[in-house]
Amino acid sequence: HFALLERGGVDTHTGNHDVINQIFELIKRLGVDVPRRNTTESKAEASKKRTFNLVEALSDEDILALPKTKNRKQAASTRLIVILSRHMMRNKMWNMLITLASDALATSLEYGLCEYSPLIFAFYGKIIISYDKDIRVGCRIGLLAQLLLEKLESSSSVRIETSMHTKFVNHWKQPLSLSLERRISGYQEGLKIGNLYGAFYNITLYGMGYFYSGLSLPPLVDDVKRFLDQMGSYNFTRPMFLNLPLYQTALNLTGQSDNVLGMFTAKTSEYYHQKYKWDGIIGLEIWWSYGMQIAFICDEIEIASAYADNLKRVGEKTCMLERVLYFEQVRAFFYALIAIDQYRKTGKQKFFHEADKYKLSIEECIKGGSFNLLHKLQILEAEFNSVNKPNIIEKSLKTLHIGHLKKTPSEKNIVSAKSLQMMYDKAISSSRRTGFLQDVALTALLASKSVEVGDDRYHVAANEALESWGATAVIRCLQVKRSLPKKDSAESDTTPIGQIKGYRATKRFIEGIQKEGSEFLNVDNPFSNGEYFQH
Hints:
Helix content: 55-70%
Radius of gyration: 25 Å
Shape: globular
Order of helices and strands: HHHHHHHHHHHHHHHHHHHHHHHHH
Mean pLDDT: 80
Largest sheet: none
């Protein structure tokens, strides 16, 4: 199939319709029927349902025992279909995409597996979660994709790309941190074979997964700095600009920048932007996302709200297949928290209904089996209870399995306060048990504003969680804003960054076989006047 690609003159790094037509022609020459451009939604749904039924009729053991096909054309067409899927996503050709991917997986199930079958399994699992919101089946197919890599002894290129696709499914049913080793392996394999796109894409996923897992921040600072410089040395500026917001965020939180809230205009950011000629667009959405989270935990709600408004406008145009990523659910969580705060301050029902909309989206994920969102729902339930909306208390108690508490008119406020404290405490406990240190701190800070306990226990809990996370700059910021208990003079006010090595800091980075990465397309900078929030 590589010979066919070269003969057809296909440039797989672009996504125009000429490229799509060329790949279609190559697939036809391999004897595979391709869907029409005007494929209807009902046709796509029928193909997806047929393949779904095939998958459900087979056990995992049955699928793993399927024979290898001897049809080399089937293998080549499967690889081309995965390449084509990327271009169809960019051009929003959803019905064709679903039909083609579903039919390709059905072919593997009916006629045997090929080296590229794990790719199509991973892609179909992504489709099932995105469109049907069936987390159980989507995660099952994603796991099968990983197992098939071993059975079929797939090449490094297939392993790398399969890992890229499974990012959409793995986070639903397992702790985020479990995927970090796989991302590092994908990065290393990519460099060994010269697949720089796959290498740096995997390391981008590693950074996000590490941050959202709640692991200690100082090692991440060292890691991301090395990755950024390596991306720059290969002239791969796009992944570098996608990772720069994370680096600046980690610097801000750990106190290694001038301002914990400084993002675009921070010295480190400006250095990379000027040196590598940032276009003002690549990574902008990521800047907003991290900025919103930092601002909220620092109690700068207006700044957080401004970031959130921009993210929501961009989110309306987000590809359906990208909405199942974990960070999208984190954004919904913060949208809800911001809306609750606005409702608390204004009493306007629109904010309450907006918060409830985002909370419901998280509830749907949890009903589907999401492992990493339950504690966030518990935080939201406590916050909803804190604004004293009628009927919220009883509903929240049912959700959290606390049970019903008897109320008398004279004891109503007292019982409500007790139940509210129970809800915050349960959310803190769940966050700590699952390792989300940032959410332990966030919940304790929220509880300190809503629960009267007569002491500073929640401030102390927030300090301890922030210290463990490495976010010493947030502690200092909140000491000024809320007069949080200061540390003992014997304690260091900064994290000893120099004494902590990154995840791979002690190991030599593997250099790829090619040094000239293709440059990504830049567009004119619409932010020349510096008004980032006008996007």
